[in-house]
Design a protein that fits this description.
- This protein is mainly alpha-helical.
- It has helices at 10-22, 33-36, 55-68, 78-81, 86-95, 114-122, 143-151, 156-165, 180-189, 221-228, 237-249; strands spanning 25-27, 44-46, 49-51, 73-76, 126-129, 167-169, 192-194, 209-210.
- The strands form three sheets. It has a three-stranded parallel β-sheet with strand order 3-4-5. It has a three-stranded parallel β-sheet with strand order 6-7-8, with helices on one face.
- Strand 3 (49-51), helix 3 and strand 4 (73-76) form a beta-alpha-beta unit.
- The longest helix is centred in the N-terminal third of the chain and has 14 residues, at 55-68.
- The chain is globular.
- 32% of the residues are buried.
């Protein structure tokens, strides 16, 4: 799982992708997740995802992922995508994405727009839903607000893409952001639910939720390989167990 990547760091990102491949990992087309529910695959396999809908991610798809023949998932907060004013985008980044020290890049745009997300879909990437306004779902005060954030109405063109893919990502993705109600709404409306909890996804594909490892562009070789090989997974053992217990109730 990646987020915004500055233009000056595009080469670092490309080098990380090369390192992951060199270590023997294969990038799986996320559209094959449904197939993987029924058939096991061998080897070291990962799926690449990007959260929050930054324009930098769109450029990475065009300039880097195409070169490496990698398909990824781009989780888009709807309201952020629809913003046309830079000031509104910066407010959203600070107050919704909780990035307090965000600095403008060399890029002319901050956020992907509807045209960009449609283009990603046409290029056979997956566009997933990342709620309407990237709120902490645990703080939604009414069931109506919770439903609206997870599965409420959106632009028809965007809805068509989301309805086709049916992939959803919890904002922030921590265990405390997931409740029985929010999980139930997500499970009813989407095939796969992505979180920010570390761990392998061998046994839980049938349960709809996907664990993810957060990556940043500053990770060095040792950190990247340690994460990929599961050396930090035990820190999240109790969070994963809590999630399995929650799912068993639904």
């Amino acid at each position: 799982m990646y987020h915004d990547i500055k233009k000056k760091d595009f080469q670092k990102f490309s080098d990380q992708i090369k390192l992951i491949k060199k270590d023997g990992w294969s990038f799986v087309d996320p559209k094959k997740l449904e197939h993987l529910r029924k058939k096991k695959i061998r080897g070291k396999n990962v799926i690449l995802t990007f959260d929050d809908g930054f324009y930098s991610n769109y450029l990475i798809a065009k300039k880097i992922l195409k070169k490496h023949n990698i398909k990824a998932i781009f989780f888009i907060p709807y309201n952020f995508m629809m913003m046309k004013n830079k000031k509104n985008c910066l407010y959203f980044i600070k107050n919704r994405l909780k990035i307090k020290n965000y600095k403008l890049d060399q890029l002319k745009k901050i956020n992907m727009n509807l045209h960009d997300t449609i283009d990603l879909s046409k290029k056979n990437h997956v566009v997933g839903f990342h709620t309407k306004s990237h709120v902490e779902l645990s703080k939604c005060k009414t069931d109506k607000k919770l439903y609206d954030e997870i599965a409420g109405p959106v632009n028809n063109k965007f809805k068509k893409i989301i309805s086709f893919n049916k992939y959803f990502s919890f904002p922030f993705g921590k265990i405390n952001d997931v409740s029985e109600k929010s999980f139930n709404i997500a499970k009813t409306n989407y095939k796969f639910i992505f979180l920010g909890i570390r761990g392998e996804n061998k046994m839980n594909l049938k349960n709809s939720f996907i664990f993810r490892d957060n990556f940043t562009i500053d990770y060095d070789k040792k950190m990247i390989l340690s994460i990929l090989n599961g050396y930090f997974d035990f820190f999240y053992f109790f969070k994963r167990r809590k999630l399995f217990k929650l799912y068993s109730k639904i």
